[in-house]
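Exercise 3.2. Students should predict the tertiary structure of the chain below and write it as structure tokens, then compare their answer with the key that follows.

Predict this chain's 3D structure.
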Amino acid sequence: MVGVVAPAGPVDPEHLETGLGVIRGMGFEPVLGRYVNDRNNFLAGKDEDRADDLMVMFQNTDIKAIFCARGGYGVNRILPLLDPKIIRKNPKVVVGSSDITLLLIHLLQKCGLVPFHGPMVSGSFGCKPMKISKTQFRKVLVGDKEGGRLTAPQTRVLQEGTARGKLVGGCLTLLCRSLKTPYEVQTRDGILLIEDVNEPAYRIDGMLWQLKAAGKFRGVKGIVFGEMINCRLGEGLSDKLDSLFQDILPKSSIPILTNCPVGHGNEMWTLPLGVEATLDTDSQSLRLKNNGVS
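Answer key:
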């Protein structure tokens, strides 16, 4: 059985039902959190209730994994309510992305788990086809090695090279939001994942500048940029952000891939954070040392 929780924004009931059907089709038996359908303004219920749903799933020995229903906003409000000691004693697969980035950082750095940056039940499977992603999602989570060999035809090489490092990162907005908090993302010696959605280019530039000023590119082994859905330079300008990335990271000596299926697109890789991976721009691929589930 797998738990389904909504730690952040409120869930669309129709999308949730569609997504539940998708994961059932993969062979997973979903169990809904008590408060998954709640709503409190822009949140999926009260902070205490959203935190309680997570902790109940961690403590339920029948639950083998926890899938987040969607992102939105609100994970930052529940992090102080989670109990790392209990989580460490009950390690489980946890999958999410977007706003869930902060929870993934917390689970990786404070609880010693291998959390997964990947599709969500309602926010991904519930509203997008994700034909390729469904297969890779299941393969990674059941330990099939094929799920750890990742390529995509649309990727672009910004800087050539090969690098090894542990996967870190997630949604750019949340990486910046983590700075100077107890949940600040640690990037040194990692392959850094960066993605976002619906942000104008000047905000992407500002957030990347903030990460750079905070030293978060120092010691990074490689960078994987997502598709950056609906993040554009402006009318009449190129819709590719590669030139912006080059401004922030001039003459970079590390390999960099852009336009990878990481984040908010119609396809999305499922990636175990904290697991060593090899980034190779010759093959435009990312290969996991292991799937993070053993």
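Discussion points: The chain is about 30% helix and 20% strand. The chain has a mean pLDDT of 95.
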